[in-house]
Design brief:
Blueprint: H1 7-15, H2 26-33, H3 38-43, E1 60-63, H4 66-74, H5 79-96, E2 104-109, H6 116-128, E3 133-138, E4 176-180, H7 186-195, E5 201-205, E6 212-216, E7 224-228, E8 235-239, E9 245-250, E10 254-256, E11 264-270, H8 273-282, E12 292-298, E13 322-329, H9 341-344, E14 351-358, E15 381-387, H10 391-403, E16 409-414, H11 424-442, E17 451-454
Parallel strand pairs: 1-2, 2-3, 3-4, 4-5, 5-7, 6-8, 7-9, 8-10, 9-11, 11-12, 12-13, 13-14, 14-15, 15-16, 16-17
């Protein structure tokens, strides 16, 4: 990876030997260098003999290669050559690195399978230096890298208890762990949880090997748990007394027990009576304490007769301040007004963000059964993404205006259908139509105290 040859002259003007910065102690200079990117920190080695090795002591190793990723995105044929450069760059930095501990170690690149052994060696390097924050993100690589379970010591017996296995490395310093597009097993995750007493953040994206996971323990320090599109997940049991934020794609797999600090929840749920009843049951132990709820509701292609709309029975969320609803409107035959039941169940709600992924432009208004009027005294901001000017769009906004007395701002982000033409010119034309529809349809509905913002 080539460095900017002009960077040394610039750095010399800023950090020359005669200035005050150069007279600071080495440990303070290293702290300053750790705030720079690796490339920027390396450039300071040209300043003088004193600066040659300072950057090699930085405790933060963030191997950021956005420019190379942009090149690969434009031309996939560059994947192999850019990947080789990236591996060489990481290896050269690690070979010269002198710090005995690491605050952070971040790998983010698009690899092919030839990088597998190098990735394992990098993990060993980070773990051997008691890394506090570890992120491994293999962007669009095809999920091939499996986290090596040989990092865990073998123990006696064919079915060892979680308390028995010892780890080859000391993970007691690890506070944040993130695996994206990495194959990692539920057993490995549970071993991390039970052998990392300071672990506060655990993020796993697109791992297909997690099936039955337990995140349980009275001494867990975990505050943030995120399991995003782990499609093999069948069950997730959580008993974590310090957990404040939970993001799980499949809420139907979740069992919540001891989560007294949980205030922010994100997840998916099918928009049918059975799934919604299960969601209400899942949230029963924490719904009264939630302050932020981000719910992705997925409409169903098949209707199972006349169903009770369980949204109308949603229990009160007395502390909720922010509500995000992402709605996959597949058939387009349900009224959007029914979604306001979640706002009605949140008497202290201040911000309501709604995103509509619609697919069919229906001219007939969806039937609305028993619209319930309510007066909301705290909602100040309502944002509607995916507005096109359908009858259901206008009805929903009018309903919000009629029932939210202190509303100050409506933000509209117009959008064509989620399945509209992929031709850029046609997409832009449809978006402009949506913007014009919003201005024409909504301005006459607004009371004087409400501001309309069309993005």
């Amino acid at each position: 990876m080539e460095l900017n040859k002009g960077g040394g002259r610039c750095a010399k003007r800023c950090f020359g030997d005669g200035d005050r910065i150069s007279r600071l102690p080495d440990d303070i200079l290293v702290d300053i260098l750790s705030l720079l990117s690796l490339k920027e920190a390396a450039r300071t080695s040209v300043l003088s003999s004193r600066w040659i090795n300072l950057w090699k002591h930085t405790p933060s190793l963030n191997f950021d290669a956005k420019s190379s990723l942009r090149k690969i995105k434009k031309n996939i044929k560059l994947l192999k050559s850019e990947g080789s450069k990236y591996v060489e760059w990481v290896n050269s930095v690690l070979q010269s690195h002198k710090s005995t501990t690491l605050k952070e170690f971040i790998i983010h690149f698009r690899f092919d399978i030839t990088a597998e052994n190098s990735i394992t060696q990098w993990l060993e390097f980070a773990f051997s230096r008691q890394v506090q924050r570890l992120e491994l993100f293999m962007e669009k690589s095809g999920i091939f890298y499996c986290f090596p379970e040989e990092f865990f010591s073998p123990c006696s017996g064919t079915e060892p208890k979680l308390q028995q296995p010892r780890m080859l490395f000391d993970f007691k310093s690890l506070k944040q762990l993130s695996f994206k597009m990495i194959i990692v097993s539920d057993r490995a995750i549970e071993l991390f949880l039970h052998n990392c007493p300071l672990l506060e953040q655990l993020i796993v994206h697109y791992s297909k090997k997690i099936s039955k996971l337990e995140v349980c323990g009275p001494s867990l320090m975990l505050k943030h748990l995120e399991l995003y599109y782990c499609m093999g997940l069948e069950s997730l049991k959580i008993s974590a007394p310090r957990l404040t934020t939970l993001n799980v794609t499949a809420l139907k797999a979740v069992v919540l027990e001891n989560v007294p600090m949980l205030v922010e929840l994100t997840g998916n749920c099918d928009d049918d009576s059975i799934s919604l009843r299960h969601l209400i049951s899942t949230l029963s132990c924490c719904i009264s304490q939630l302050e932020s709820l981000n719910l992705h509701l997925v409409d169903q292609y098949v209707r199972h007769g006349q169903e009770t709309d369980e949204l109308c029975n949603f229990p009160e969320m007395p502390k909720l301040k922010k509500l995000f609803i992402e709605y996959d409107d597949i058939l387009g035959d349900k009224s959007l007004i029914r979604l306001a039941a979640l706002a009605r169940a949140s008497p202290h709600l201040e911000e309501f963000f709604f995103e509509n992924e619609w697919r069919q432009l229906r001219k007939v208004r969806p039937f609305v059964n028993g619209v319930i009027r309510f007066q909301h005294q705290h909602l100040k901001v309502f944002k509607f993404s995916g507005y096109y000017g359908r009858a259901s769009d206008i009805d929903f906004i009018q309903y919000i205006l009629e029932n939210c007395d202190v509303l100050e701002k409506i933000i509209i982000r117009p959008s064509p259908s989620a399945v509209s033409s992929r031709v850029e010119r046609d997409r832009l034309r449809r978006k402009q139509i949506a913007r014009e529809n919003a201005k024409r349809d909504l301005e006459p509905l607004l009371p004087p105290h409400v501001e309309l913002v069309i993005l």
